[in-house]
Amino acid sequence: SPGPSGQIAHQSSGKRAKNIIDTDVTIRVNSLQKGNPLLNYLSNMPWTYDTKIEADYVVGRSACVLFLSVKYHMLHPKYLLTRMGKLRTKFTSRILLCQVDRANDEPLQDISRLAFVNGWSLLCAPSARECARYVETLKSFEAKSADSLKKKVDKYDNEKIFASMMTTIRSVNNRDVGTLATNFKTCKNVMQASVERLAVCSGLGPKKVRRIHQAFRQPFRPTKKA
Questions:
Q1: Distance, first Cα to last Cα, the chain
Q2: Could you read off the pLDDT of 97-125 as tens digits, one per residue?
Q3: If you average pLDDT over every residue of the chain, what do you get?
Q4: pTM of the model
Q5: Contact at 8 Å (CB) between 4 and 69?
Q6: Which residues contact 218 (CB under 8 A, 6 or more apart)?
Q7: Cα–Cα distance, 58 to 2 (Å, whole number)
Q8: Rounded CA gap, 149 and 141, in Å?
Q9: Alpha-carbon span 60 to 24, nearest angstrom
């Protein structure tokens, strides 16, 4: 019978781990996923069925993935909440991977609400192939720090440093960065600029001027109320 994907497919044999189960490199797959087309595209990392896990995919010591298609949710609206309940306290990183196989906003909104209320991160993909790439990526980044995901900036490239610093301010975009660079040349000059000086820059509205000005004058730590 079809799994949560709502489709029937042949089992993938490409990179499946048959005899060696190294939890550091192997994606563990719940047996309930047999028949899910996603497995046909898990070709870049080894994987194996595991009858002892309750998540659909275990991609780290504390990270799991539940798979759901919009079509399946429409047919079985109580399924997702039941599965979430069983995993509530077993993983610190819980990802709901949703295959958007129906052009219907209402069930997707319901899925989004359930993910938010129950503390799950939601990833959406249009196909089984894209879903598989998500699973492999989550597993491949298991042992990497957050720094590895950040954009690298050459410490000697002043333009990139300026842009990186300014775009951390809410609503400041690349065009604003160019305006600030033209008018102030350096980060120091922007930091010391008055509201009146910032306001004469083309394209910077009152709200954006206020945010830029306040960004360099707010305390790093919130002050305690007396």
A1: 64
A2: 999 998 878 899 999 999 999 999 999 99
A3: 83
A4: 0.58
A5: yes
A6: none
A7: 21
A8: 9
A9: 8
Report the distance separating Cα 119 and Cα 85, nearest Å: 11
**Could you count the other beta carbons within 10 Å of the beta carbon of residue 35?**
17
222 pLDDT higher than 50: yes
* Contact by Cβ (8 Å): 95, 120: yes
Strand 93-99: give its sheet, edge to edge. Answer: 47-50, 27-30, 57-60, 63-69, 93-99, 121-125
Q: Give the DSSP letter of residue 168.
A: T
Distance CA 61, CA 124 (A): 23
Closest CA to 102 of 69, 79, 76: 69
Residue 25 near residue 56, CB atoms below 8 Å: no
d(CA 5, CA 72) in angstroms, rounded, equals 6
